[in-house]
Design goal:
With about 140 residues, this protein is α+β, with helices and mostly antiparallel strands. The chain is about 25% helix and about 40% strand. A 5-stranded antiparallel β-sheet has the order 1-3-4-5-2, with helices on one face.
Amino acid sequence: MSVRTRTTPGQELAPLEIPITRTLIVAGAIASRDYQDVHHDAELARAKGSPDIFMNILTTNGLVGRYITDHFGPTAVLRKVAIRLGAPNYPGDTMVLTGTVEEVEASPGGETAVVRVVGANGIGRHVTGTVTVTVPEGGAA
């Protein structure tokens, strides 16, 4: 049984490496009902000036949420996810998510933290932003 340690400002979350596969890109687009051709058709993506298909923002948003709940545990509640995209995630690359706790406040029955998240790939920063998460007292990590 693991006991979660108290969250403190400046605390760094363990990095999470996510291989960017065609399957991940296409499945994320389908799951979020984003049928834009640049997320599933390489030929049409190239015709529009992209070297290949690329990940949509909704998939990125979900991966950022997963990163936070992987760290804070299954009882964590995402209160706000505010992200901005940068360099595209293309198939064959790897995105590495990192996070740093910026603020922590006591909340009824637990604590609420603001975490700065960065996701970088081989060509630059794919995503930057902050996530506000509430963790109930006794939540596991």
